[in-house]
Amino acid sequence: MTEMTEQDEPAGRTDGDAFILDIRLSWLASKSAYPMWLSAEDSARFVPPDPVAAQLGPVEGAVGTVHRAVALQIGEDARRLLSSALPDDVLRTVWLGATAGYFDPAAHGLSGREWMARIEQTGTTSVRDADAMFVPPAPQPVTDTDLRRRVMDQIGTVADGLERAADERSLPGLVPALEQVVTGACADLGFRLFLRAMKEYFVPIDENRCEAFTALGESFGYPEFLVDDNLNVVVVG
Fold it and tell me: Rounded to two decimals, what is the model's pTM?
C-alpha cells in the first residue's frame, strides 16, 4: 500500500481547492497543458518562452508556494522510473499518454529517460535551494505481486478502448507501455498514469468499472476524489 499523508495534499490542490485531484508525477502530467488554458496576454506574462521550462515550472514553483513535499514526491516518482530497466520509448509513450501528447520530449531533443531525469533534477535542485544538504531518498516502488496483478486486470478490462483512443491520436502501444510500468517499475505509478490516460482520452466506462477503479485506488491509499475525477463514466438507465 502507498501511504498517503498530509504532505501529499498540496500535490493535487492549490489554495481554495476543495479536493485533491491527483498527486506526484501524474499530478505534474495533469498540468502539462496548463499554458494552453491561459489567454494570449497571460501566457506572454507568466509562461516561460522555453517549452521545457514551462513544463518544469510546476515542480520549481511547488517548493516556494506550497510545500517542498510536492517536489520530493514528484522526484521520487521519477526515480521509480529511472531506477527501472524500462526503455526510453516506454517512458516517452506513457508520458505522452498521460498528457494526451501536449508535450513531447523528443520534439525538444530529450529521450523519455532524459525527460524523467530533468524532472527529477528540477525537483532536487528546487529542494536544495532551501536545504543545501538535501540528499534524495532512494525510490520505493510498489512491487507487491497482488497489487500488480490487480492493476493489470483493471487495465485489461478497458485495454481495447484506450488503445483505440490513443491510436486515433497517433500514439500506438500505449497500453503495453503502461503495463510495462506496472510490471517493471511500480504498480502505484503505473495505475495513476493509466488513470491519467483514461481521463485525457476520455475513454468511456460504466459505473461498475468506476467502482472497481475506486476500490483499487483505496488499496493504494489515494485521496477520495483522485480516481473518479473527470473519468468518462456512462450512466445507463
Answer: 0.85
Q: Select from 99, 130, 161 the last residue of a domain.
A: 130
Question: Does 163 share its domain with 205?
Answer: yes
Q: Which residues does 115 contact at the CB level (< 8 Å), separation at least 6?
A: 91, 92, 95, 105
* 59 domain residue, yes or no: yes
- Mean pLDDT, contiguous 10-residue spans, the chain (237 residues): 37 45 90 68 68 81 61 91 97 96 92 96 84 88 98 98 95 97 98 97 96 97 92 87
Last residue of a domain, one of 74, 96, 130: 130
Q: Which residues form the domain of 198?
A: 145-234
